[in-house]
Write a structure and sequence with these properties.
By secondary structure, the protein is mainly alpha-helical. The protein has helices at 4-17, 21-24, 27-32, 35-45, 51-80.
Length: 85
């Protein structure tokens, strides 16, 4: 399921370049549904309390947070129909 995000991001890029705002508006919710998947993957792929696993979990959770914040920015930009946000 995680690999599907790459395909969705490719579609999003295409729709942004074509300024298909009617389609772009739907992506934040679709991509937001992957946040729990990323979190579950992070916890299951690096389950131990070893320094390596712990460090990887922290780093990946940080990136999940950045992904979530970026979806909010995408939502705002698509409502304004502004590519530069």
């Amino acid at each position: 399921k995680i690999r599907k995000v790459g395909d969705i991001m490719d579609e999003l890029q295409r729709d942004l370049m074509q300024e298909r705002w009617d389609l772009v508006e739907k992506y934040p919710e679709q991509l937001r549904s992957y946040v729990p998947v990323f979190t579950t993957y992070t916890d299951s792929a690096f389950p131990t309390e070893s320094p390596t696993d712990w460090g990887l979990r922290v780093a990946l959770r940080y990136e999940v947070g950045r992904f979530f914040a970026s979806l909010e920015r995408l939502k705002q930009a698509s409502s304004r129909r502004a590519l530069d946000e």
